[in-house]
Design goal:
Shape: elongated
Largest sheet: 8 strands, mixed
Helix content: 40-55%
Distance between the termini: 40 Å
Oligomer: single chain
Length: about 270
């Protein structure tokens, strides 16, 4: 663990893939003993505690008690029940941070005890597990600027964080929340054809993944339009332009647009339930 820079009590209810990734990242800047986790089954929380040196407790209420930042890392269908359960245990200055897809800040408030609460909604993504997340953050008016800044700093241990208007959250969910799955499919497809062409499987995954990683970093660092970067790889009558034409022939970009649009529609649907 790195040097602790935040003297704050944190609770995370649910320590599965996403919640677990964020907590692991935060242990770089927060003393693990200031972080308490709970899960549906205590064995899961205990195993996570053994790995990270965080505190594991039996109940969600016990986890929330005394915590400044309470992360809700359960599936959307269980968010309301968890909020009702922990409401009596929340301190007056507690900031609730939900990462449930589709669940709006107003719905989170409605599930609580009627008292106006400081609420933050985030949408992280899977690369949080390796410190390369893209995280969107929206806060209600009850969250002070200081607490927004502190929550943002905590989350930056897991990657890049941007504050967005809540109306963009369904878009964020579709693009960066669901996006890694689409990228992994692209890596898999690239690797499959490499294997077909004779490259060993393990090597094929490295070539495909590093190619995406390097290309993404180039787009971020140069700030150039993706089309301009694509054009710079395409020599006249060369190999790359042949591949680009094949992608266009097979509706590559339209397939991506349809995939992200479908994820967006599902996020909107989740918010209506």
């Amino acid at each position: 663990m790195g040097m602790s820079t935040f003297d704050v009590n944190i609770a995370c209810i649910g320590c599965g893939v996403m919640g677990g990734a964020l907590v692991r990242a935060m242990t770089k800047i927060v003393d693990p003993k200031k972080i308490t986790v709970s899960a549906k089954h205590f064995d899961e929380a205990k195993a996570f505690s053994d790995e990270t040196n965080c505190n594991a407790v039996v109940s969600n209420t016990e986890a929330a008690k005394g915590a400044k930042y309470v992360f809700i890392a359960v599936k959307p269908a269980f968010v309301a029940d968890v909020l009702k359960e922990i409401a009596p245990a929340l301190s007056d200055d507690a900031v609730i941070i939900s990462m449930a897809a589709g669940i709006k800040l107003e719905s989170i408030q409605a599930a609580l005890d009627g008292k106006e609460r400081a609420l933050i909604r985030i949408m992280p993504n899977m690369p949080a597990a390796v410190g390369e997340a893209m995280i969107a953050l929206s806060a209600n008016s009850a969250v002070s600027e200081k607490d927004v800044a502190e929550a943002k700093s905590l989350l930056e241990a897991a990657g890049k964080v941007e504050i967005v208007d809540e109306k963009l959250m369904d878009c964020v969910t579709a693009v960066s929340g669901s996006g890694p799955a689409f990228v992994f499919m692209f890596i898999e497809a690239m690797a499959d054809v490499a294997v077909k062409l004779g490259m060993p499987r393990a090597q094929a995954y490295i070539y495909a993944a590093q190619t995406l990683k390097g290309s993404a970093e180039m787009a971020l660092q140069t700030g150039k339009h993706p089309a301009a970067l694509k054009d710079s790889v395409c020599s006249p009558a060369g190999t790359t332009i042949e591949g680009v034409v094949a992608l266009e022939k097979n509706n590559f970009r339209n397939s991506v647009i349809e995939a992200v649009s479908a994820a967006y529609r599902r996020s909107v649907e989740l918010g209506k339930k």
